[in-house]
Design goal:
The chain is α/β, with parallel strands linked by helices. The chain has 2 domains: 5-100 and 293-327, NAD(P)-binding Rossmann-like Domain (Rossmann fold, 3-Layer(aba) Sandwich); 102-284, NAD(P)-binding Rossmann-like Domain (Rossmann fold, 3-Layer(aba) Sandwich), CATH 3.40.50.720. It is built from 13 helices and 12 strands. It has helices at residues 14-23, 37-44, 60-64, 84-89, 102-117, 120-128, 157-170, 183-189, 196-202, 222-227, 245-253, 275-278, 293-312, and strands at residues 5-8, 25-28, 49-52, 71-74, 93-95, 149-153, 173-177, 192-193, 205-208, 233-236, 259-262, 282-284. The strands form 2 sheets. It has a 7-stranded parallel sheet, sandwiched between helices. A 5-stranded parallel sheet has the order 2-1-3-4-5. Bound molecules: (2R)-2,3-dihydroxypropanoic acid (DGY).
């Protein structure tokens, strides 16, 4: 029987590539930068499976150019780069990598929160730039963390893990928004579910963990920053397009809020000329939340398992659209 043909849109950890190559004829994109949309279309044209990254757009046009495609295995927990409805309509299964990057992502949320709260960016810049002239009684002031109020926007797995660290580590009170009640957070962290407006008004730290969808795109604009405290620290480890970056830059520049920490931007990479880089109270890192060897290997295993199940016509271990199962491509 012919081996399934798959396109892997980037070099992945060996644990995934070895498993995929053992079972499939794999075409692995060798470049550092993603394939263009046209190149991706050409590569998947006769494939049974695709491993995509969050930088690869999987849309109706791509799916229509790949009539044999049975599975899209996204190497990420987020799948806003994949038109899931278009996949489902065509019987294409979509898989993702939830759970295994929860701790690493929560660690980065806390890292950014601490760095932004304690003016680490301007401290590093000034120490390196010769502006550290003496011990300054009034210099490089940050915000205290102990006992302050944390607002988690989107109390999913990562929101919970972030709140757990800050509640147990720094005794923070936890407010959150979520589509429904979160009894675990209420019980374990003494957390309280509130409306977003109340969360923004009461929180000293606002950490965003909501997924990107039409209702969250552009959620954080001038009005939302205006509702926060002037001492507030804003952290985003979810997706860049949730934030209006022009409004964020204005809020950071004019003191509407104190500081921000961003693991995600829009676009990615954020052009080096962007005004957010020039602001000393903005810490930006290049979407590294899941970047640890253990986490990326665990993501790689899930990703390969989803792909291999999909090409075999089996249930995906982490299946975003099980409803595609009824109309799977033969
Ligand atoms: C994800 O998996 O969605 C992250 O943003 C990438 O690590």
């Amino acid at each position: 029987m012919a081996r399934p043909k798959v396109f892997v849109a980037r070099k992945l950890p060996a644990v995934a590539l070895d498993a995929i190559r053992a079972a499939c004829d794999a075409d692995v994109w060798p470049e550092q930068l993603p394939p263009s949309a046209d190149e991706l279309k050409r590569r998947v044209a006769d494939c049974d499976g695709l491993v995509s990254l969050l930088t690869d757009r999987v849309d109706a046009a791509l799916l229509d150019a790949a009539p044999k495609l049975k599975v899209v295995s996204n190497f990420a927990v987020g799948f806003n780069n994949v038109d899931v409805a278009a996949c489902t309509a065509r019987g294409v299964c979509v898989g993702n990598t939830p759970g295994v990057l929860t701790d690493a992502t929560a660690d980065i949320a806390v890292t950014l929160l601490l760095a932004a709260a304690r003016a680490i960016r301007s401290g590093i810049d000034d120490a390196r730039g010769g502006k550290w002239l003496t011990w300054e009684p009034l210099g490089w002031m940050g915000q205290d963390l102990a006992g302050r109020t944390l607002g988690i926007v989107g109390m999913g797995r990562i929101g919970y893990a972030t709140a757990k660290r800050l509640h147990h580590g720094w005794g923070m009170k936890v407010l959150y928004t979520a589509r429904g009640p979160k009894p675990d957070a209420d019980r374990d962290l003494g957390a309280t579910r509130v409306e977003l407006d109340e969360l923004l008004a009461r929180s000293d730290f606002v950490s965003v963990h909501a997924d990107l969808n039409p209702t969250t795109k552009g959620l954080f604009g001038a009005d939302k920053f205006g509702q926060m405290k002037p001492t507030a620290v804003f952290v985003n480890t979810s997706r860049g397009p949730l934030v209006d970056q022009t409004a964020l830059a204005a809020a950071l520049r004019d003191g509407t809020i104190f500081a921000a920490g961003l693991d995600v931007t829009d676009p990615e990479p954020l052009p080096t000329s962007h005004e957010l880089y020039a602001l000393p109270n903005c810490v930006i890192v290049p979407h590294i939340a899941s970047a640890t060897p253990d986490t990326r290997n665990a993501m790689a295993r899930l990703c390969a398992n989803n792909l291999l199940a999909g090409v075999k016509g089996e249930a995906l271990p982490n299946w975003v659209n099980p409803e595609a199962g009824d109309k799977r491509r033969a």
